[in-house]
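Interim report, section 4.2 (structural modelling).
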Amino acid sequence: MPAGLQLQGAQLFRHRLLLSTLTGTPLRIIDIRSDDAAPGLRDYEASLLRLLEKVSNGCVVEINETGTKLRYKPGLLAGGRGLVHNCGTSRSIGYFLEPLIVLGLFGKAPLSITLKGITNDSKDPCVDTFRVTTLPMLKQFGVPIEDVQLKIKTRGAPPEGGGEVLLQVPIIQKDLTPVSWVDEGMVKRIRGVAYSTRVSPQMSNRMVDSARGVLNHFLPDVYIFTDHYSGQGSGNSPGYGITLVAETTTGCLLSAEAVTNPVNQDGDEKQSPSLPEDLGTHASRLLLEEIKQGGVVDSNHQGMLFLLCALCPEDVCKVRVGKLTPHAIRILRLIKEFLNVQFSIKPDPETGTIILVCVGSGYRNVTRKIS
Amino acid sequence: MAAIAAEQGHKQHRLPKSGPTAKKKKKAQQKKKGISTEQKNPKAFAFQSSVKARRLQNRSAEREQRRLHVPVLDRSVEEPPPYVVVVQGPPQVGKTLLIKSLVKHYTKHNLSDMRGPITVISGKKRRLQFVECINDVNAMVDSAKVADLVLLLVDGSYGFEMETFEYLNILQVHGFPKIMGVLTHLDKFKDAKQLRKTKKRLKNRFWTEIYDGAKLFYLSGLIHGKYPKREIHNLARFISVAKFRPLSWRLTHPYILADRFEDITAPDAVQRNPKCDRNVTIYGYLRGCNLKRGTQVHIAGVGDHKLWNTSILPDPCPLPLATKKRGLREKEKLIYAPMSDVGELVYDKDAVYININDHQVQFSKSDEHKEENEFEDKEKTQKESVADIGELLVKTLQKTKYSVDEKLNQSSIQLFRRGAPAETALIKSHTVDTELEGQDGHGSDEDDEMVDTSSEEIDTDAASDSGSDAENDESADMSTKKDIERIAEMNENLTETDFDGLGNASKWKEDLLSFTKLKRGMTLMELVYGDTQAQLNGSDAANAVDDSDSDDELFKLKNQPPKEVKEKNNNLEDMNADDSVKLEMTSEDLEIWNSMEILESIRNRFVTGDWSSSARRNQSHHDSDENDSVMGDFEDLETGEKFNMQTANEENSEKVKADDKEAAERRLKKLALRARFDAQYDGTDPAVEEDVTSSKGKQQRPHQGSQSDYFDKLKEEIELRRQRNMAELADVDEEVRLEMEGFKVGSYLRLEFHGIPCEMVQYFDPRHPLVVGGIGPLEEGVGYIQVRLKRHRWHKKVLKNRDPLIISIGWRRYQTVPVYALEDRNKRHRMLKYTPEHMHCLATFWGPLTPPNSGLVAFQNLSNNQESFRITATGVTLEFNQSFQIVKKLKLVGYPYKIFKKTAFVRDMFTSALEVARFEGASVRTVSGIRGQIKKAVKEGQGKEGSIRCTFEDKILMSDIVFLRAWVTVDVPRFFNPVTTLLQSHDMVWRGMKTVAELRKERGLSVPNNKDSAYKPIERPPRHFNKLKIPKTLQSALPFASKPKLLKKRSKPTLESRRAVVLEPNERKIHTLVQQLNTIRNEKVKKRKEQNEKRRKIFEMKKAKEDELSKKRRREEIRERFREAAKRRKSLERDEDAINIRMGQLYAA
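Predicted structure of the assembly:
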């Protein structure tokens, strides 16, 4: 039996489980929020564990009474069609999508799963971002992009959720393609989606106007779609938000997003819902911030980029990113721990970006069946 | 004698009449005569039909495609590790002698004993490692997994033996490396024709096993107990030009063939407990792919172990440095065989041991003394002047009286130019004071410091060069100065507390290191991965700090993390940090974007901005890593003008970006092309490895058109990737590189293992190959593996389901219990009781996970003294999983006891209503084919317990039997047992789980016989159906068509049958003639039959007589043989008796 790993705390819970499943390393996590007023695993984390049980075969999860200790013995990734998972309302679907996309690539069969819950919230990247930015990123690693699909069936805004998305991820036949992705290019067009659900359709137009007001200063080619939901596809709560994507001349996609505070119908709201104009401006400024930072991906996708690089065959991968986020740094450490892959990190002082080079771990999709 | 020789004269030279030389000569002759060698009528050989032409075209295209192989990326950059040449053959065939001859050929070294792998240098760019494969299945399997080239030795006088075929099969499964056959013992043939025939026969058999044209060598015989020099030379030539196939398993797994093995357990621990777990080191060249630190490895025959420590040692058998010279010099012909004790140098982790033969010792003191005694002083001085300086130095070194420490104590150092020389002892007492200065000095020359391993005294020297101090002080800002002070304080404490301790020095150094870090500023790598040095040796220090904290913990208020940290989620050390990728940015953070200045700063990041500045942005990076001559700056020597890419770019800024990218691409492509050319040209450094034939094909047809464009593209891509790898890793620091890609292929490694069972050391046998193989991710786990398996056609019996099987797969060998199955049409996996005779089947077993597409070979018995073919089955893995569904059919039988129209009550199918509940709605069938369905169990008290109510599509009979066809999942036993042959004595047979047959034989049990399972002739008594009776009333009511037609039998024949036939006279004539002819023929046939019968009888009589005779003769022969044997036995006994009697007499005497 492989020697297991013992880790502490609740940080990077998703990625720990993800890497544990990919490498087949049994995991023990102790002291999960043991000092907290509400100790133990959160319900969304438990939901993630249930999701992993769904997509894999033979995994064992043991949690102690207080939920501060977890033993996870990973199974083999099975994938499969027609799976359904209810993500709950404490975290949005984006929380689950991040590990699921990577897991799906290395399964036995292509994954097709319906996730139910909150599609857009301010804590995690929303499903639009995944659709327009994250999934195209996989193309760089040789994933057949025509088979990757994320279909938003229903919007679900916090707090009640009620959204539904269909994720389809193909499996890779052998291994990923190593990337040498350093040319960030210049922003040539900006696209976006302003959605509104269970509110006045004017909200999206107002967001679009304000975002364009900032961005048109740089570029005439700004087009933001408005996406209004009402009736069946509109989920259980009202909400609105905007997602922006800047596409560069070399095909890099940088995204930024802004979502309103939950609109409480009860009236005893702590935070009043944000003004659509403010959201538009906020999102566009975030986008400008990402563009300023540079790099081939935005700050939200750094972790995933590094992870994919580390899962490449034993060739050199080279990527350029902007400022390293704390989350990305944690992931780099985790990668070293699980996959034994260390990156060489060199700042590029002229542009203020960072260039990371690594030799992939030589990970192959061994769970797949040969005929 | 001489006269005769003169008479005979020299033998006439005979011109060759066939073969290439003759052809060439003939051609030349014809040319001389003016006869054109070209075809006279080329049209005669042109295609006559378009169909034929198309077929030929198709055929050639197909052949072309078959020649191509998927190119494989060879990631090794350094010189390749020695190729493993395994020499295998049945016992007494001359394996050892062949290796000895080859070693002698390569190194001029006479090997006395052959133990373990022997590394020799065979050419300027090639090393070979010879391994002898002993006749043991385990050794055969292990050596087959690492062999690059196999020399299959075959006794020509005997022919092929089972071992050879077994080994070929094992090789085939584990990747099929290059194989060359060698025929020996050919001098036993006296008859030349017989020899020629045998050679041809053996060659053809060899070719069918491998491929047509596989190389088979003939070693004609022994000369002075050695193989002829010329033949060994030829063999060596073939070995030196052999190209080796890249094998997919080995390209993805690192492995080491150990050529040295040491037990490094503390001797006292062994003394206390001889059975204690050992620490061992294994040495060998790394092959396959790069090995990362601390990975799990499998030692074949021992088990999975974690790499405790890995280090690179200098290559004990390095290739010669690149020179223009042809061939190797004598000094470069190295041999390394630590297990056979031939090499003089033994490298350990931190020491080199030189083993010098007694007669080679030249500098020892004893010699010197002798010389002094023998010669006078005068002569001696003369000699010294002649000897070179190196010799002198060595001699002076031997004459030292004091150790280095003592000398240092007495020595003095002049600190300042005009100051008095300071005594070391004095300085030592002031170490604490000068500490700070010492560190300062080291900030400037930290490299020296890293190398320096000597003690503190030398470090204080550095304090003296105060010149560097000033510089450092300038660069260091106030904050660092504070830190320095803090460190200094700490140092004082440390040095005061344990001044004498050895730990002092190391801690002192740690601080120094951290100090230098402070000076440099944290690099990004350190920020992310932490201080690797500190991690390596400072772990216990961190623990100590933790301990001290634990006291205060009790009084701390928990659950109050710093507020701002928690909100921002930016604290890297927060254990329970929120798991979100998003960086939270408030709109206040983004307020800066109000200012025009900031907005303008990113103007050039858009296509609407300045393209040139953006190009520069991407350019700066390219320049930094492409400092080689292809794209770098250059200087015009004539004008003295300096060009660099930077300025050039600014000039034509518009196109630059696209250009630059293209240029980089072009440059890599050019390199790729060059490398490929190199590979083709000299064939020694194949960058992209592929099959030999394919590259040959390439050379022959340079313009192939669009056919192999895709192939070319693939190869180009791979070459690009390779070049990129090399370019990116070229300028990385060695230590970082090690962390990034692990130990490189070809390096000589020392692997340290802890907790190895003592039996491995106890029973270590260098003749058995010791293979250490790395295992990839997911391969550490266990699960069910499904393989496509085929019983070997030479194995005598089919395999029984759930009988244990020893399986060699990947690096491992283990015993497991497979369940055989076949896939039905509807994808159902149906269990089989036995493997099919000549077909593949699926086998599912529990074991360590192995990636799909890896071959496996199975054995039932590993013992070496069985005459039958040992390989039981071969196969390939299809997939692994944590569960597989294999089912077997189960038929439940019931009998109807009450039948209504279409409803029937059936009993004896189930035993309880609960069982029935599980099968409600299941379909049933009667023997006669009437289908039905189970409805419900009958109520309690009605009928037998477990009876059911069924409905059918028709009324069934009471004599019908009702079947329920069901499928039961079969469990695959979760059992596997690693074959640990290295943990037992070599001559012991590894014993695992026994098969059912073995157990029965052992206990004298017969095969259980179920009477019901035996096949019996089917008895079907004819069924009598009662006559159909139709009541008269009904009969009368029926219409005529439905009435039974009951007619009485005719009493008189009909008129037609009564009527006489009168023939016409002509007809009568014909009739009689035909009758006569028939009579004649019949008579003839009768006679012939009689004659035949007679002949047969005679023949049978004759045969019976002959049989009787031959039977008699055979009986006589057997009787004679037994009589002879009895006689011999008796005479032996008599002899023995005689000896005994004689002995008795002797004793008596």
